[in-house]
Amino acid sequence: QKEVEQDPGPLSVPEGAIVSLNCTYSNSAFQYFMWYRQYSRKGPELLMYTYSSGNKEDGRFTAQVDKSSKYISLFIRDSQPSDSATYLCAMSAEKLTFGTGTRLTIIP
Amino acid sequence: DTAVSQTPKYLVTQMGNDKSIKCEQNLGHDTMYWYKQDSKKFLKIMFSYNNKELIINETVPNRFSPKSPDKAHLNLHINSLELGDSAVYFCASSQGGLKSPLHFGNGTRLTVT
User: Fold this and answer.
1) CA closest to A6 among chain B residues
2) Nearest-CA distance from A39 to chain B in Å?
3) How far is residue B107's CA from residue B23's CA, in Å, rounded to a whole number?
4) A92 contacts in B (CB within 8 Å)?
5) What is the DSSP string of A84-103?
6) Would you say B3 and B17 are in contact if contact means Cβ atoms under 8 Å apart?
7) Quick one: which of A57, A58, A99, A106 could link to A4 by a disulfide (CB 3.0–4.6 Å)?
8) Nearest of B52, B47, B62 to residue B98 by alpha carbon
9) pLDDT digits (tens, 9 = 90+) for B10-36
């Protein structure tokens, strides 16, 4: 079993919809949780960084961490075509471990 | 202005050749990394340096050798390239060690023919 599981998609939703992206993990030592966005032929860029269970909001993005269920989510409200990218979850204990990424397309 | 820059952007070479990829960061970070991203977008750490000292060396063939002349630079040299080495290689940096968020370069797309 992989330490971090992420549905690779692809996921296509119409513009304006709410997007939900999820990861599960098995290592209870993970303490720091991140979401990265990667556009085609670019490096991943940090979107959200959280430490504890609960929600963190930044504009249209909300990161949610449930340590008891070992489950993290990223919600995108009012999705835009510019949100089309691959989204990678990442989490760390001793070092950063990435999920495999979910490819998201927002249809105008 | 580029925070983490790596060169070249594209590298096409034949099996058996030796090649190098260079990386520089101007963020003042103390830790630098090399990651490999395969065709399925999975990012796997290869090496990490903290203040020029190697702190992570994952199971990577000896043909791969990182070098950090100073804490702002981390280069990757690959000997005797093989077809399976074809991938995108990302340099990244962070401040505060291995748990901290990473800043990535835009990658070097290596194709071995």
Assistant:
1) B42
2) 10
3) 10
4) 98-99
5) -EEEEEEEESSSEEE---EE
6) no
7) A99
8) B47
9) 999 999 999 999 999 999 999 999 999
